[in-house]
Specification:
- There is one protein chain.
- 31% of the residues are buried.
- This protein has 5 helices and 6 strands.
- With 182 residues, it is of the alpha/beta class.
- The longest helix is centred in the N-terminal third of the chain and has 25 residues.
- Helix 1 packs parallel to helix 3.
- The chain has a 6-stranded mixed sheet, with helices on both faces.
- It is 43% helix and 18% strand.
Length: 182
């Protein structure tokens, strides 16, 4: 079997997997994307090695805040429907165990896609993995997401299990009493 045949088989397998996931969601009365924004906790997963911890922390928050749990995985748009099927199936199983809804998006700007999806689903908090940049500096995904959604709390879970937070920039409104002349 040559490379093109393997690619085609992967395409068919991934397409079938996404169709099955979509069908399962519809059978439960849901869809892959909420049509109506309600409040939720949003967990961003991208690596199966650490997704279980992220989903578990998101589940804990959803129980504490009494909100539904949404999980999003964003694939590069170049992947199209040739996404990594085995990872998507693992994400689906973990979401099923946690009672969460899984959405797969294809976009090259992960932070922008996450911010848009957070608005669409009414996310009250985002949970993601803490990534350090190549230079050892701060997490550029979280920084970009915070710039795009400055009122959204972001919790970042490190590989060691430590949790870091970015809280919104709330600017209190100052009301001045106006005097009436009369």
């Amino acid at each position: 079997m040559d490379y093109s045949q393997n690619s085609y088989n992967l395409f068919l397998g991934t397409s079938l997997l996404l169709s099955i996931i979509n069908k399962r969601q519809r059978q439960k009365g849901g869809s892959l994307v909420n049509k109506k924004a309600t409040e939720s906790i949003l967990v961003c997963v991208n690596h199966p090695d650490f997704s279980k911890e992220l989903i578990a922390y998101g589940k804990r928050l959803s129980l504490e805040m009494n909100l539904p749990l949404q999980v999003v995985n964003i694939q590069p748009s170049a992947n199209g429907y040739c996404a990594r099927g085995h990872e998507i199936e693992l994400f689906y199983q973990q979401c099923k165990e946690a009672g969460a809804e899984l959405t797969i998006l294809f976009d090259d700007d992960f932070a922008d896609a996450t911010a848009k999806f957070a608005r669409k689903t009414g996310a009250k908090q985002v949970v993601t993995q803490l990534f350090s940049s190549e230079s050892g500096g701060p997490d550029t995904f979280a920084e970009a997401l915070h710039r795009l959604a400055p009122t959204l709390p972001i919790s970042m879970v490190s590989v060691s299990g430590k949790i870091y937070h970015i809280y919104p920039n709330y600017r209190p409104r100052v009301f001045q009493k106006t005097s009436s002349v009369g």
